[in-house]
Amino acid sequence: MPLIRADSLNCGYGKQPVLHDVSFSLAAGLVHGLIGANGTGKTTLLRTLAGQLQFSGELVVFGVHPFDTPAVMDQTTLAGIDAPLPDGWSARRLFAIGAARHRRWDAARADDLLERFGVPGPTSYNRLSRGQKSALSIIYACASGAELLLLDEPYLGLDVQKRALFYEVLAEQMARPDTTVVLSTHHLHEVETLLDTVLYLDGGGVAMNGSIDELADAVIEVAGPTEDVDRMLGRLGTPLELVREELSVGSRVVLDLRSSPAAAESVYETASQVSGRIRVGEVTLEQAVLALGGERA
Question: Coil, strand, or helix at residue 20?
């Protein structure tokens, strides 16, 4: 049974849903990347999963409906710059409250991360920099002991070194038992080695939901002289062109193989038969997601 399951889910603010008729499932023990342009509903979905927003349709988290449900809220931590803390609270006060709030609070983990991120413990929240505020949210989430961490672009304001530290800390967190992460991000190229699945929101719904391995097998790139590429595609017949780019030396085409997973072998074989000038290769996760997302645009 998945940890999170949505079926025809509608959620948002007021009478107009931000997300409508959304269906997906997320398994326990994995890092799920939540991606999409600004305004597509990532924060709305995370707040709904955390039990903060009402919804219609079906949504189950930890086996129950999440809205205002202690069984969900006690096992879930939502962190990010859009989940701010009271201005007068310091990290030390936050940690004291966290210890009282979470039965699995890890004080040693909190102190270790506070030092590694360089956040001053006595300083009130409203006097921290944006990066320090983001770091404090990350620290709280990782020390909470919650089984479900909902991280809403937690890297905002962090410099390059601190972002790298965040990914290091996230990898450490996933080595702990009973941890599931849903990470909203715009930096796929930085985090793709940590992700197990991607949930892509677009146009008020789910444009794509699948494992990283499935995406790697589903999208392939072909490049070469235009006449050779077109002849090869004519022989294949089935793959869908997601992206075509005309280059000075020919064409580059990104193909969608989801309808025929075995087609990758066929692409390589046909390319070699048509011309030795055709290059076939994998694309990055970010390229795959952008190409597949464009199918909906």
Answer: strand
- List pLDDT tens digits, range 228-278: 999 999 888 766 888 899 998 899 999 988 776 667 788 889 999 998 899
pTM of the entire predicted model: 0.89
Cα–Cα distances in angstroms (integers) from residue 81 to residues 55, 75, 119, 130, 180, in the given order: 23, 20, 15, 8, 20
Contacts of residue 178, Cβ cutoff 8 Å, sequence gap at least 6: 28, 29, 147
**Could you tell me the fold of the domain covering 214-294?**
Alpha-Beta Plaits (3.30.70)
DSSP string for residues in 81-108: TTSPPPTT-BHHHHHHHHHHH-TT--HH
What is the domain partition of the chain in residue ranges? 4-203, 214-294
What is the Cα–Cα distance from 85 to 134, expressed in whole angstroms? 11
* Segment 136-141 long-range contacts (CB within 8 Å, at least 24 positions apart): 136/85, 136/91, 136/94, 137/79, 137/80, 137/81, 137/83, 137/85, 138/79, 138/113, 138/166, 138/169, 139/91, 139/110, 139/113, 139/114, 140/77, 140/79, 140/94, 140/95, 140/98, 140/110, 141/77, 141/79
Distance in angstroms (rounded) separating the CA atoms of residues 22 and 76: 21
CATH superfamily assigned to domain 4-203 = P-loop containing nucleotide triphosphate hydrolases (3.40.50.300)
CB 264 within 8 A of CB 217: yes
